[in-house]
Design brief:
Blueprint (H helix, E strand, L loop, with lengths): L8 H7 L26 H9 L13 H14 L3 E5 L2 H12 L5 E5 L4 H10 L6 E5 L4 H6 L5 E7 L11 H10 L3 E5 L4 H4 L9 E5 L13 E5 L1 H14 L5 H12 L1 H20 L4 E5 L9 H7 L6 E6 L3 H10 L4 E2 L9 E3 L11 H7 L5 E5 L5 H14 L2
Helix pairs in contact: 1-3, 3-10, 4-9, 13-15
Bound molecules: pyridoxal-5'-phosphate.
């Protein structure tokens, strides 16, 4: 599906999805902002449906702008195919609903994205699908929780918000031994920092709202994997309907062109920020896989090309102090989400993990004093000046 398989990621990000528009010489692709497509006659419709000629029918079934971004994404994730959908949650729900049935179980870790947690805990039980959450990142603990019903292992690495690392190759090998499908939410890493297909994962998901889009201006999701699995999920998407609007697909395509250089800068800023926080007297703990003291550093070094743009830390004091800190900074926006050019800061207990049951939050190790920083690509010294404002507000 890629235009040229020999290209490296920086080149793929720019060129893989664009097939060229020689009739007009447009360098940027057009947006097919249409809900439906017209046929010449019934024979033409039949030829499109049978695949005899190329063509489209209706945008929920497919659209050239969506396909351009899908070509780019499968080139970057090194998968056979990719599907774009309307949000990261749509990628998660479409994948689970498209692959599991009543009586099946999912195995996951304790510190996953809050939206996925709610889908697993509040929605799936209605369909008779159980979720087993393991408060550990040890493969042996995950394996011990597998039952005959476990059909899917669902992970994030690094996890949200504590940046825990799972040894992906070992997890995939263990899952395969038990006949499970291996699913990973690769939002935090992006394909620039990590390509989980290399370790045996079947489906790679993204909230493309984050780094892939990169500019806090769209919601989008991605499912990447084999032709067979992605086709099954494309059929599910057509039924459930979380289509990505063509304009959002076009903005996503544009955002991805600069993904490699943005991620390089996110990685650098985050590493420097983690080191600055590690030496700060008002910080009790820093979570960043690029720090040698991080428990998952060894695994991260093996499986990642960069450690990502999210840094979490606990401040000395109380949850109220953490709230005061995020309210006192000026450059950084107190806003949920991550992966954009601008730095965003949150207190997970009041945002992404607000709805977790208190015991599940404790299991996941998410404290009231925890602050998550989605480091942007601004000048690093300006970010440090802003952090100093936050610390000064604590007195
Ligand atoms: C790791 C992760 N996965 C999935 C999602 C959901 O993505 P969306 O908001 O695009 O539905 C998020 C959103 O914050 C996330 O952080």
């Amino acid at each position: 599906m890629t235009k040229k398989s020999g290209w490296r990621p920086e080149t793929q990000a720019i060129h893989a999805g664009i097939t060229g528009y020689p009739d007009r010489g447009a360098v940027a692709p057009p947006i097919y902002q249409t809900s439906t497509f017209q046929f010449h006659d019934t024979e033409h419709l039949n030829d499109i449906l049978s695949g005899k000629v190329e063509g489209d029918i209706y945008t929920r079934y497919g659209n050239p702008t969506q396909r351009a971004v899908e070509r780019t994404l499968c080139a970057l994730e090194k998968t056979e195919a990719a599907l774009v959908v309307g949000s990261g949650m749509a990628a998660i729900t479409t994948t689970v609903l498209g692959l599991l049935k009543t009586g099946d179980a999912i195995l996951t870790v304790a510190d996953i994205y809050g939206g996925a947690y709610h889908f697993f805990h509040d929605f799936l039980p209605r369909l008779g699908i159980e979720t087993i959450m393991v408060p550990s990142h040890e493969v042996s603990d995950l394996e011990a929780a597998i039952t005959p019903q476990t059909k899917m292992i669902y992970v994030e690495s690094p996890t949200n918000p504590l940046l825990n690392i799972l040894p992906l190759k070992e997890v995939a090998e263990m899952g395969k031994r038990h006949g499970c499908l291996l699913i990973i939410d690769n939002t935090f890493s992006t394909p620039i920092n990590q390509t989980p297909i290399d370790f045996g994962f079947d489906i790679i998901l993204h909230s493309a709202t984050k780094y892939l889009g990169g500019h806090s201006d769209i919601l989008a999701g991605v499912v990447a994997g084999s032709e067979t699995l992605v086709e099954q999920l494309r059929k599910t998407m057509r039924i459930l309907g979380p289509t990505l609007d063509p304009f959002a697909a076009w903005l996503l395509l544009r955002g991805i062109k600069t993904l490699p250089i943005r991620v390089e800068r996110h990685n650098q800023n985050a590493q420097r920020l983690a080191e600055y926080l590690e030496g700060h007297p008002k910080v009790s703990r820093v979570y960043y896989p690029g720090l040698s003291a991080h428990p998952g550093h060894k695994w991260a070094k093996n499986q990642m090309r960069g450690f990502g743009g999210v840094v979490s830390f606990e401040i000395e004091g109380t949850g109220l102090d953490a709230a005061k800190f995020v309210e006192s900074v000026e450059l950084m926006a107190m806003a949920p989400s991550l992966g954009a050019v601008e730095t965003l800061i949150t207190q997970p207990v009041t945002t992404s993990h607000r709805g977790f049951a208190p015991e599940d939050r404790a299991k996941a190790g998410i404290k009231d004093t925890l602050i998550r920083v989605a480091v942007g690509v601004e000048n690093f010294e300006d970010l440090v000046d802003d952090f100093e404002k936050g610390f000064a507000a604590l007195g």
